[in-house]
Amino acid sequence: MQTKITWQQAWTHLQKYNQENFHRVHAVTVSAVMRWYAQQLGYTDEADFWEIVGLLHDIDFEKYPELHCQKAPEILSQINAEPELIHAVCSHGYGICSDIKPTHQMEKVLFACDELTGLIGAAALMRPSKSVQDMELKSLKKKFKDKKFAAGCSRDIIKQGAQMLDWSLDDLLEKTLSAMRDKEAYIKNTIQ
Hints:
By secondary structure, the protein is mainly alpha-helical. It has one domain. The chain is built from nine helices and no strands. The protein has helices at about 5-15, 20-40, 45-55, 70-75, 85-90, 105-125, 135-145, 155-165, 170-190. Helix 1 (about 5-15) runs parallel beside helix 3 (about 45-55) and helix 2 crosses helix 9.
């Protein structure tokens, strides 16, 4: 899958619909993690597509939370997004706010890591370093098990995502943590 939309076009469009820094950071984080996964899983030639899907996955959430994944097609059509990109964006809400099932490996990865990047990011903020660089899997698993910590990050969706990918939960946690370690400086530099 390829996209004719550049990262800069996607970023500019995202900013029209997402004013809050929290949502922008989340979009860039998921975008960077998706690029990392594309490269790790043998989809290097699709890395731009994976990255842009990650960037735009929540484009409608801030302005239309009650219509999440429902307004996205209309918003994305404004930049002539390909049907594959729109499908991928809408599939990350499968079973929550969308009936579009993730079918491609990229869509399954997005479904699995969307909530997880939020959990990892919240855990990093609790660390003295405010970084994922010194976070261990054991520490992340402890935060994952604590239902009160980052309560808005659905553990059930994360588990469902791991099952979709036929990965163990530990494997998903470890890979996504590695992705965030690898991309942490890029994420911080992009948001500044």
